[in-house]
Design brief:
The chain has about 190 residues and is α+β, with helices and mostly antiparallel strands. It contains 3 helices and 9 strands; from the N terminus they run βαββαββαββββ. The chain has one domain: Cyclic phosphodiesterase (Cyclic Phosphodiesterase, Chain: A), CATH 3.90.1140. A hairpin with a 6-residue loop joins strand 8 and strand 9. The protein is globular, with a radius of gyration of 17 Å. The chain starts with a strand and ends in a 16-residue tail after the last strand. It binds adenosine-2'-monophosphate. The site of adenosine-2'-monophosphate has 7 residues, from strand 3.
Length: about 190
């Protein structure tokens, strides 16, 4: 089965990304990612035998041990690939180093268990469109929102239908390590 590890996005970020996507619909042609599918990929494993799924779960569990939740802010739009068939995404302006640290730990834990992944350098982004034609029109200003990432998930990607479907197989919650920060301290946003 086709697997990847991603951070889930809190509701406020999902809504902001949905608003950016709606603005893009007016100006850019291409295939839009369904708003309920937005996620931040940390590692893409590709095809993995069903017998290795428990190892992938253990790798995610281990990588997230002691990792606190990550405060992030959505940032500018960016693209990968050719201008006529680009992958169009929204990036982040806050939390990039922490996300990169988490992605590095997830990849290391996978490698420790002999699970391979796409080793392309981690560039934190949420894909909004594929095969986007960026040759015409100005892009809108993206909607920016802040939030906290606290769930890392092993997903199965099913490409057999009319659009990709991402099925969560295993969730791990990021927690502030005990004794971290002054007494009574907690993130509110
Ligand atoms: P993308 O959105 O930038 O295409 C499921 O396919 C998720 O894994 C997507 O978020 C996709 O990123 C990511 N991914 C990373 N490397 C990939 C690869 N080599 N092939 C397919 N998806 C990949």
């Amino acid at each position: 089965m086709r697997l990847f590890v991603a951070a889930r996005l809190p509701q406020a970020l999902m809504e902001a990304l949905g608003e950016t996507s709606a603005l893009l619909r007016d100006t850019v042609r291409g295939r839009y990612v369904a708003p309920d599918s937005f996620h931040l990929t940390l590692a893409f494993l590709g095809d993995v035998s069903g017998t290795r799924v428990s190892d992938a779960c253990a790798a995610v569990e281990e990588a997230c041990e002691g990792q606190p939740p990550i405060r992030v802010t959505l940032g500018p739009l960016g693209s990968f690939g050719r201008r006529r068939r680009a992958t169009l995404w929204q990036g982040f302006s806050q939390g990039v180093d922490e996300m990169a640290g988490l992605a590095g730990d997830v990849r290391e834990s996978l490698a420790d268990r002999g699970l391979s992944y796409d080793a392309t350098a981690f560039a934190p982004h949420v894909t909004l469109m594929r095969a986007a034609d960026l040759t015409a029109g100005l892009l809108p200003m993206p909607v920016v929102e802040r939030g906290v990432l606290d769930t890392v998930t092993l997903f199965r990607s099913d490409l057999s239908g009319d659009r990709p479907r991402y099925e969560p197989l295993y969730d791990v919650t990021l927690r502030q390590p005990e004794g971290d920060g002054p007494e009574g301290f907690s993130f509110l946003v």
